[in-house]
Amino acid sequence: MRRASARPASEGTPDVRDRRAHCIPAGPGSPKVVGDPPAVAVVGGGIAGIAAATALAERGVHVTLFERDPVLGGRLAGWPTTLKDGSTVTMSRGFHAFFPQYYNLRSLLRRTDPRQTRLTRLPDYPLWHADGLKDSFRRVPRTPPWSALGFAISSPTFRLRDFPRMNAAAALPLMDVRVPDVYDRLDATSAHDFLASIRFPEAAHHLAFEVFSRSFFADPRSLSAAEMVLMFHIYFLGSSEGLLFDVPNDPFPTALWNPLGAYLERLGVDVHCSAAVEHIAPHHDVFRITANGREQRFDACVLALDTNGLQSLATNSPAIADASWHQRVARLRTAPPFLVSRLWLNRPVRSDRPGFLGTSGYGSLDNVSVLERWEQEAVRWSRRTGGSVIELHAYAVDENADKTAEQQRLIEQLHRVYPETRTAQIIDERHEWRADCPLFPVAGYTDRPTVRTSHPHLMVAGDLVRTGLPVALMERAATSGMLAANALLDRWRVLGHTLWTVPVRGRNRLLRRLAEHHRRHTDSDG
User: Fold this and answer.
1) I need a labelling partner for 497 at 20 to 30 A (CA). Which of 154, 246, 356, 434 fits?
2) Residue 198 lies in a domain
3) CA angle 462-250-272, nearest 5°?
4) C-alpha closest to that of 506 among 492, 516, 498, 496
């Protein structure tokens, strides 16, 4: 591992516990822009856009941030809503886990919260199956391979008689994950088929691995095995940071976006919410960008949009990149719809219920959160009313499903998981249906955009982007935003930002050798 040079606290130096974490050093250059600062438009105010805007503005670049919604945050935004009891509360698109492996996202958050006081560690990550099996990561060792061994020994889904039946050779790709090699080898296979080839016990397949793969909002049959294997590397087999995670202890606007929005304004960023960019046209050495009917000129542009937003803007802006880029962007897909239901109950759930619970076998219910276990707004409401604030998630819902019926079925599954909720009255409820997360389908890796495009001053950022690094979900968004900024700073010979990831290959030398031997044997047979 290469250690980064010291950085001011304002730049959010991450707390890296893993001694094998990988450092991507900052590119060389002057500490700040020299002369007239270039003007950059960042289109999209989610994690990726805020990361790019922050990284550029800290180096003296003049940044204008456009966000089509009224608030910052993208898919982690929050908004006020008034309940039937008169309470004003914050609604959002639901629970998100902030893992310790999210080095670059945490670095971004440290700009306004150096000690991470706005995040709270949950004591466990329990998993329940409807047939009574239960798993926990609370006492699983952090460092691989002991983490995998400890989980297998302690899990009721693995029994001694199951191990001889497993295909150890098929599992070897899990032990030495490299990017992009993992995509070259496994992108043409579905997550479901890869797991089936290993012959994991059926209970483990459903309880642990399917729960993980569905965190990508997709059915394992339509998810690339490469993406799932990379996920195992990031969270379990390649990192010693462990699987326990933090959650914001206030709603997203309070804990994350309001402070970062104020920080951007102090850096001189022009933040424009409710400002949808309609058209981008390269003109000589500048981009002409039209938002809300008004045209402005910029020296460079970062597109930090979701799949639908990127496709729409690309369609309206045919000259921004070459035909190949446009064709690949047009082929991108979104994951199936998902549902977030939040219920305000008139009585509490049992005091031993965890803050977050992953579930399997309960119909479409994927997880249950008890918000007053960590979120202060929910704590205050619960103390005032004596009730509970419960959030339910259902991923990869059938596109043709009856929404009202699905919402009711989700509540019925809650009653199965936590029977005490059967007699509770629902004071109010909110149901958020969305279908805007990127899908990482089988054989879809090469269609995903990279940070750089055919235009030297046009960059792309977001969780849909190929980075060439072992990052995923929110961390991919933050990392790609920083990479986009670094690419532009490098062109202007300005110092970039140091980035970190989990190790870029398997941790255990013996297991790496076995995996390499298996790869060579497989290739020679092919």
Assistant:
1) 246
2) yes
3) 45
4) 516
Distance separating alpha carbons of residues 51 and 45, to the nearest angstrom? 9
498 burial via Cβ count (<10 Å: 0-12, 13-18, 19+): buried
Rg (alpha carbons) of the chain, rounded to whole number: 23
Domain co-membership, 489 together with 520:
no
The total of structural domains in the chain comes to: 2
Average pLDDT estimate for 176-194: 93
307 shares a domain with 232:
no
Looking at the structure, tell me whether residues 235 and 297 fall in a common domain. Answer: no
- Top-confidence residue, 7 or 168: 168
Q: Are residues 236 and 197 in the same domain?
A: yes
Structure tokens belonging to residue 399: 């596109």
Residues 201 and 265 placed together within one structural domain of the fold: no
Residue 354 lies in a domain: no
pLDDT band (50, 70, 90) for residue 141: confident
Tokens linked to 218: 């997709």
Contact 394, 366 (CB under 8 A): yes
Q: Where are the alpha helices (DSSP H) in 355-472?
A: 376-385, 403-417
Of 160 and 83, the one with more pLDDT: 83
CA 405-408-413 angle, to 5 degrees, is 125
Range of the domain at 326: 21-74+254-333+446-495
Cα dihedral across residues 414, 120, 241, 231: positive or negative: positive
Q: Based on the domain organization, do 324 and 460 belong to the same domain?
A: yes
Burial string for 433-453 (b: 16+ CB within 10 Å, else e) reads beebbbbbbbebbebbbebeb
Please report, for the domain that includes residue 270, its CATH number. Answer: 3.50.50.60
3-state helix, strand, coil in the chain (%, to 5): 35, 20, 40
Q: What is the pLDDT of residue 7?
A: 40
Helix (H) or strand (E) holding 481: helix 473-491
Q: State residue 3's pLDDT score.
A: 37
In a domain, 12, yes or no: no
Residue 414 in tokens: 């809650």
Q: How far apart are CA 23 and CA 3, in angstroms?
A: 7
| Beta strands 356-360; 127-129: pairing state | parallel
Query: With a threshold of 0.85, does the pTM exceed it?
Result: yes
